[in-house]
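Subject: for your reference before the review

Hello V.,

The reviewers asked for a structural picture of the protein, and I figured it would be easier to keep everything in one thread rather than splitting it across files. Below is the amino acid sequence we used in the manuscript, unchanged from the supplementary table.
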Amino acid sequence: MVNLRYRDNKVLYTSLINISLPIALQWFITSSLNLVDNLMIGQLGEAEFSAVGMANQLFFIYTSLFFGFTSGAGAFVAQFWGNRDLSNIKKVLGFSLIFTFIAGLIFFIASFIFPENVMRIFSKDAVVIEHGIKYLTIVSFTFLLMAITIPHASVLKITEQAKLPMKVSAAAFIINTALNYALIFGKFGFEPMGIQGAAYATIIARLCEMLLMLYFVYVKNNIVRGTFSELFSFNSHFAKRILTTAFPVVVNEAFWGLGMTTYGIIYGHMGTTEYAAIQVSNTIYTLFIMAIFSIGDATLILIGKELGQNNEKQAYANAIKLLSISVILGLLSGIVLIILAPVIVRLFNFTNSGKQFAAVILTIYGSVMWLKIFNGINIVGVFRGGGDTKFAMFTEVFTVWFVGIPLVLTGGLLLELPLFIIVLMAQFEEVAKAIICFTRLKSKKWINNIIHDM
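And here is what came back from the structure prediction:
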């Protein structure tokens, strides 16, 4: 029994490392790209920094929506992958491309044609709005490029080929960083363009990212490469089955993304300095936490594979082990963030108040990181891997909109409490979520084989 358990654990942890490490590196690269953007734009001043941060709130909603759909569809890919059913995996990819491109087109129209209306949602500062319009109008084209990149990257990760998206993200990071430096500050013979330069750098980097992704999949003849008929030959029953599972995740991520944006709107109306502090804190926090969330992607894959083969007991055992690892990593990362917070904030050209706000906020974030990791791995990995997407949606929407936002709204706009108190109040969302997630986890009601008759 001991040897068998050791062997099972060794297989699980080896799979975890092979799957999650490239995903973690990709998350780190992506987060670093955002951090480098913010460091460079932050040198221009708080108004410019806040403008780009507010404009990027639209991208946050967009990527949340995309992540929701690809995560929901990913539950099917993971379980199909357990049976090595490449034909149905290609159909899921084709259906995902249709969905994401339509969504990308809607966001492109909104940001290209109505940038001022978008910016006025987030700020009442005329200078910030003016800067944001310049940035958003240019960068809006990336919505269409990412609509093609994201579904391909998702399928590659779930079919245990995460190194390819990692390489593509690394190339995009290098291109974006170099172009940011050249175009924002006017280096290598270019004229200084400020935040408009950052927007052009983003478009070029995203275009290269998309082209590289298509090259790896179609030119190099990857296993997920499909002809037009293989990608789009699904019938209405197939599409309905995916939507039934994926749509709650889309709603989940959309309302979660809107919730985070609502937090940003509340902070934005508290003042430019306060919003800049929140924005930089969120960027740094993401750099720490998203690498650990790669275990969530790995959890979805590993649980989905077991359920695709009807190994329910092993799926539950894997969930417990992976959650335990995640919480430990969350505790350690939180401690590191707290220690480094005062040093990190000095990298930004902020006022002393802005730096003090950011340092305190990062300390709060570091203290609750383990709890946020526990909740995230449950929702993104365990529940979605088991096809329990409706319950995950309920949990996320309820805790954000009926716990977190009412507290922040009351503290920020009605009582006008200090910023760090409001940020602390927002963390009660995670406490409520953890109670709900733990109860559902122990019930085992999240365990489902969603491809049994497909």
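For the response letter, the relevant points are probably these. The chain has one domain: 2-443. The chain has a mean pLDDT of 87.

Happy to draft the paragraph if you're swamped.

O.
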